[in-house]
Amino acid sequence: MRIGVVGGGLMGSGIAEVCARARVDVTVVESSTEAADRARARIEKSLDRGVRSGKLSAEDRTAAAEHIAYTTDIDDLAGSDAAIEAIVEHEPAKRELFARLDAVLPDAHFLASNTSSVPIMKLGAGTTKPERVLGLHFFNPVPVLPLVEVVRSIMTGDAALQEARSFAQDRLGKVCIDSQDRAGFVVNALLIPYVLSAIRMYESGFASKEDIDEGMIKGCAHPMGPLALADLIGLDTLLAVSQSLYEEFRDPASVAPAVLNRMVEAGLLGRKSGRGFYEYAA
Ligand code: CAA
Ligand code: NAD
What we know:
By secondary structure, this protein is α/β, with parallel strands linked by helices. The protein has helices at 10-21, 33-52, 58-66, 91-104, 120-124, 158-171, 185-203, 209-220, 226-233, 235-249, 258-265, and strands spanning 2-6, 25-29, 68-71, 82-85, 110-113, 133-138, 147-152, 175-180. Strands 3-2-1-4-5-6-7-8 form an eight-stranded mixed beta sheet, with helices on both faces. Nicotinamide-adenine-dinucleotide binds at residues 6-12, 29-31, 35, 86-89, 93, 97, 114-116, 138-140, 233-234, 237, 272.
């Protein structure tokens, strides 16, 4: 099987890694050579981590790396069986990309988006075959978290849906749940208002960021607190998701707190920029 992964940031590199570990040929498309180099470095670091923790043999690590090609030319995806889009959470950019994928991959079985919140129908609508457009929503970090939400738009066909689910479940070994095509799908519709509430709590001086995070780790056995989680997700992505949720549901719980807007404007994007609610070594 040959698959294209468009966008090689936090999520695209994780998706490419799990595909390559399952012996799928992957082509990662990035917007610049520098971004493609960063994707390669991120994937190789994660594979090395797998070897160090004993989850991957040295031979499997080499084989996985050899299954991934990197390019900045989307035409290099021609002939792929399917594509998964993982570019920035920006609806116009995704719409433009799906129209391009539709033209480059006329015979692909499915075109999936890893969007956190953009309704899938909006992406399918600009293609000639919306029946093969669907959501495969992976979770961060992709090599660690088993879940994939499978999202069917009102136009997605059974064949594409079954093929995509079988790819995620049987080939990649992920656990799938189904979601209607509503902003945020199942998990983010629940998770993001919680993270935004934590930011509001911090912003208002109700409690310190450390105490908010410690409270949820020690009091509710979450693996990390909501402010550290915001930094892991990326504050630009979190802001974009909150905007999509608000646009769809008009629920005040999804309104971005002012401090989140200011941090994104300042380029404080969380782990990926080295600073968000916390600071991170390079
Ligand atoms: N790549 C590969 N492996 C990784 C990894 C990565 N990026 N990060 C961690 N791991 C592995 C480590 O190798 C380690 O494996 P071993 O136990 O075999 O050594 C294991 O995961 C645990 O890692 P650490 O000990 O370094 O760190 P930790 O125990 O603090 O766990 C964490 C880190 C996995 C991030 C954990 O804190 C966690 O699961 N946090 C919650 C993450 C979460 O909620 N994600 C969802 C975000 S929302 C989303 O994804 C949807 C959206 O649309 C925004
Ligand atoms: P990111 O900022 O880490 O990566 C986005 C990448 O897309 C960048 O490397 C950028 O260079 C690249 N890119 C932008 N436009 C492109 C184009 N036209 N062609 C090719 N590459 C392009 O973002 P991310 O966290 O990886 O998020 C990617 C997608 O996954 C978003 O839709 C996001 O909502 C979703 N998502 C994110 C998380 C998370 O926790 N961060 C979890 C699940 C889903």
